[in-house]
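The methods section describes the discrete structure representation at length, but only in general terms. What matters is that the chain and its backbone geometry are given together, residue for residue. For illustration, here is how one protein appears when written out as sequence plus structure tokens:
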Amino acid sequence: MSSKLQFQVFYGEGSVRYGPNGIDLSAFKCSSSGIDKPGDRSFGSIYKWLERGFRINPETHVLTVQTVVRWANEGAVWELMPIRNTADWKMYMEAVFERGWPLAMLVQSYEKPQVAAAAEPNEGTPSAQMEEQAEGEEEEQQNEEVHVTETEPQGQADEGERIPIIVEQMQNEDEEAEQMQQGGDSSDEEGEQVPAEWREHGFGNPIVQDARCPEWEYRENEVVEGSKYPTIDAVKEAVKLWSISLRKEFRVVRCGSRIYEVKCVKDDCPWRVHAFRGRWKTHWQCSIVTEHTCYLEGVEKSHRNLTSAFIANEMYGLIVDNMAYEPKMIIKHIERTYKYTISYDKAWRAKQKVFEMRFGTYEASYDNLPGMLAKIGERNPGSQFDMQHFPSMIGGPSIFHRAFFCLGACVRAFQYSLPVLCIDGTFLTGKYKGQILTAIGVDGNNQVLPVAFAFVENENTGSWYWFLELVKRHVVAARPDVCLISDRHPGILAAIRELQQGRGTEHPIWADVRTRWCMRHMGANFYDHFKNRDLMLLFKRLCAQNQQRKFNALWKLLDEMTAKHIEERDARASSSNATQAPESSGSAVKPFTHWIRDAPKEKWSLLYDTDGSRYGIMTTNVAESYNMVMRGVRCLPLVGIVEFIMYGCAKYFRDRYNAVSPSLNNPGMLFGYKIRDYMDKKITKAQQHNVRPMGTRQQRFEVACKDRSRRGVRRERVVQECLLREDGTAACTCHKPKLLHLPCSHVIAACVESGVQPTTFVSPYFTKEAVACTWDQEIYGIGVFGTFTQNRAQPCYIPDPATVRKGPGRPKTRRIRNGMDESELAKVARKCSQCNNYGHNYKKCPMNEQHNAAEAGPSGNASDGRPPEFVSTTASRARPRRSVSSRSSVV
């Protein structure tokens, strides 16, 4: 029976890392090799065995051997113990058998200083050595090839009798056992099997440093003497990371422009790190690094050096990739990585520091914004921007007031999209108050097209007039009959009125603008007045109705139901409180006809939409949806918001052009996928209609719709009249061709009867060529000009001090709930911000269980890396369950 023990030998180029459980040797190569009776051997024999295995020349290089240990009084932290003599080796082997330490060692090769100095004059390599080395490599390759072709063990009975490798290995083991019994340690100098991986060319050979390499040099997670760092911040970061991984705290003794020194917080511990920057040097170097002699007294929940700046550096990549990364998720990440718990305030401050590291400070963004917009206009032809500022009352930099910008690609794309703009505003959630005004277009596939943006102080008549005036000048230009869909904000209505009629004696700037109102906001106003969700849905049906017959029936029904609803509500109020009955009976609740009489029908009804100006778009959902896209970046400085918009638009153009470009060479596809689905549905429906020609010189038809009622139920017959004109337009009593600019099923049925192609009556904006021309524009980035995060000593622009947020607590980051949210309240599927899956939030994410799984220690056993489990001494008391009769909140 063999007495060999298998050792894990780590070697090669790499650096020792430190994690929550101590050292991490994953950066090195690893090989397994057996040593016969290692406890009885001297360290000299082990050292010579390693020299032979790695082909080290003792005259030019020296080996260092370190073993993996875990001291009992240091907790579950793995460390490296250097082996210098036989006494160290014997102590290590005794601890292996008594304490269960892993059989693992780290072997590294270094060149002797005198050899390196003597080798400087002769840098060339003799050709003879190269040839000899090449021959050696060829022999090794041949040996490896022969070894591969031999029969390999299959784990079957009596394999040792027929496989030569096993027979030879058993004979060698018997001979080694006899030599050990007769000559004691006679096998130290010969006969040990060395892994082929150790014989790689170049192990232990020095690498010639290139002059282009940086002058700083340091290990990733350890501070050692001689380490060089580019800046003092890098020194601080390395010391903090090393200290936290060791679970030891330190205090700063000296911190200046040329010296940085820290010591252990325990006075009796000599641990110290001293770094300096030479007078004529550009890097920092650690000159003094001593070891800790203090021991861990217990498990601490906090660490004094775990600052918000350190957490910001640790979480930088995660937060920049996911702006919606919440502070509670930062707390969980720190607990998993470093086994410490931080406060919510510290996590929130760390997130803000990440924003400042990436996009600069909030104050600097107001000063850098003009330069950033100028570079965007320089790289993207057709882009425009404008600014407003006013002088400070106390002198100095000007105060930033407003900024407008639009990308040239978006302006050109708008010329091929529908002549409709949805305008809306959303608030900033950063350090300073403000509003973002947006103008969003729609392409032929009903996709969002961001067009223009503005940063203003708030939503008022002046800000909206300034924004819409620039939209008319730079975006719409001479395009006629553009329709604006808004939410009836008083500032918007007043601004549009001034644009149409002019200010005072001024000529109107936008006389032909068409204005329409959002159906969702009208429904919210209806709900605020009547407080009935069913009636609100009936009113929305009235808004979207396109037939006069159905419109009149719904109007009459709303009149009856709202009047009945008002009577019942007044009756309930009078019965509950008789003293307030006179006031309740004279309430301000009005019937539907009285409530809607001041709102022009062409503003909110699809049926009365003049010339189909809104193209069937009844809401400002496209603007609302884009505001939702920007929800996670509204807390950023202004340059961060502009960068998000620019690169987001570039992604829109790239992805949507790639989606529509394959159809350009397909003659069977005439429209985008939205219109294609619409036409397929209408063609299927048209096959069920009965068509009767009625015109003599005109192509006029009567189309009888199929009775969709069940058998045996009498229903009034519905007949629509269609007219196909020679100019390529169509008319129908259902009004869909005029309102939607698309043929209805009645027109399609008439086209089949007359032999006309139904595609003739589709608006050109819906063709695939128009969609492709919308998204084939190019947007050029500005990353080559820098990050625009500079803090200048004398800025040109500063934010208005009156707009800074005041008051306790963090600023509100989500929209204020209003009547529209209450009227459309429903259960929405939750989405996790950690894994982006639906059905749960980040608190109950399955990824948390994966992160909490145990990590294997250096010995390969999962129990080595598992964090300790603690049981609270105080039993938690269960909260009593509420009774059914207790009051609950109504959602």
Notes: The chain has 28 helices and 24 strands. Residues 172 and 453 are 82 Å apart (CA to CA). The radius of gyration is 39 Å. The mean pLDDT is 80.
